[in-house]
Amino acid sequence: MAEKGNFLQDQDVLDFNRDIEQYHLGPLWNAIPDLMKHQPEPHAKAYLWKYSLLKKKLMEATQIFTPDRGGERRAIYLQNPGLNYRKPWGWASTTQTLYAAVQLILPGETAPSHRHVQNALRFVMEGEGAYTIVQGERIFMERGDFLTTPNGLWHGHGHPGSEPMIWMDCLDIPTVYFLGGTFFEPYPERLQDPEVPDNYSAQRYEGGMVRPVSDRYPKKAPLAAYKWKRTHEALEGLSRFEPDPYDGYAVEYINPSNGETACPTIASWMQKLPKGFHTKAHRHTHASIYHVFEGSGYTIINGVRFDWEKGDFFVVPNWAWHEHVAEEDSYLFSTNDLPILEKFGLEQEQALETNNGYQTITGEFKPVLG
Ligand code: GTQ
Asked: What is the pTM of this model?
């Protein structure tokens, strides 16, 4: 008798497996070890994109894409090299659940108003003078600002200023694509007209941790823009005390009317790592996309050292050991799919117990410079 498990290679089994394929049927006995891994083995890879490359390609794209020619937005997405570049699964995926992109708008350009069920957020990297108009509110963006455009809200962009402006987009595009619930609608005109004063919601919440009494009951996005000054102040206050051993000093952007993440399916953090700080290694089932807002250092992901500096982006996939080292005072903006994992009861976390909680470096990532 064949040993248990080896029967998969027996001819009658192989024949049967092939036979049922024609009826669009599949054998679980052949699939279960791959379908249900003993622990996460994500297809997405740890990867790092240099800002010098992203900026160069965005500037080149200004020759390729103009609002007249392309209609939509000039955004270039970060495609995870471990995932399929083409449809259907893995397309436009930075992690298995999230899409991230860099977007450039030139003075005088507009990106048309539209709405979709995908939840979106932005983090402003460079330039000033452009606005996004969300549900009739023009929000002028400045470096370090965080903006959220949850599911179903009208949004478009315009740029009356004088220099190119670049920001990061993060959306739950792969998740929605996979779940099959997508809807998209262009606005009847190119850009929605203002309906409230400019920067209305940021002014209503200028004080930080107090809310207008009318916002006592939950709203989708009562605050459209989180100004860098406020986030910075919060981190300054927090960093007078002991840092978290895994995350340093980190704050999460929240919806002030319900205390949940600012964007319903995507958590967003700003993290301060003082010069010389070395976090301990841990891993968790959610995956993260990091953008280096300020500073330089490196992150060790599953033993591989990823050096980073201002502007770079990198991915920490699901269940990957990771620890950060700041070589200068550093600020890392990051997004992650924790709210999605939590909804499915999938969030798990583990601290590295060996070697005092630090990984051994086994390799170094060589970024593509372009
Ligand atoms: O700026 O509204 O990168 O709708 C992808 C989809 C940006 C945007 C993206 C979008 C936008």
From this structure: 0.96
Say yes or no: 113 and 250 in one domain.
Answer: yes
- Asked if residue 1 has pLDDT above 50, the reply is no
> Which CATH number goes with the domain that contains 295?
2.60.120.10
One domain, residues 135 and 11: no
Mean pLDDT of 249-262: 96
DSSP for residue 23: T
Structural Rg of the chain based on CA atoms: 23
At a CB cut-off of 8 Å and minimum separation 6, what does 206 contact? none
192 and 214 in a common domain:
yes
Residue of 105, 169, 172 best suited for mutating to test ligand 1, as the one with most atoms within 8 Å of CB: 169
Per-residue pLDDT tens over the stretch 321-348? 999 999 999 999 999 999 999 999 999 9
SS in 3 state form for 188-239? CCCCCCCCCCCCHHHHHCCCCCCCCHHHCCCCCCCCCEECHHHHHHHHHHHC
Domain assignment of residue 370, yes or no: no
Please indicate, yes or no, if residue 369 is contained in any of the structural domains: no
Does the C-beta of 101 come closer than 6 Å to ligand 1?
yes
Q: How deeply is 265 buried, as exposed, middle or buried, from its count of CB atoms within 10 A (0-12, 13-18, 19+)?
A: buried
The reply to whether 120 falls in a domain is yes
| Phi, psi of 325, deg, nearest 5 | -130, 125
Number of domains the chain contains: 2
Nearest alpha carbon, ligand 1 atom 7: 169
With a 6 Å cutoff on the Cβ, whether 155 touches ligand 1 is yes
List the domain range (segments joined by +) for residue 180.
Answer: 47-364
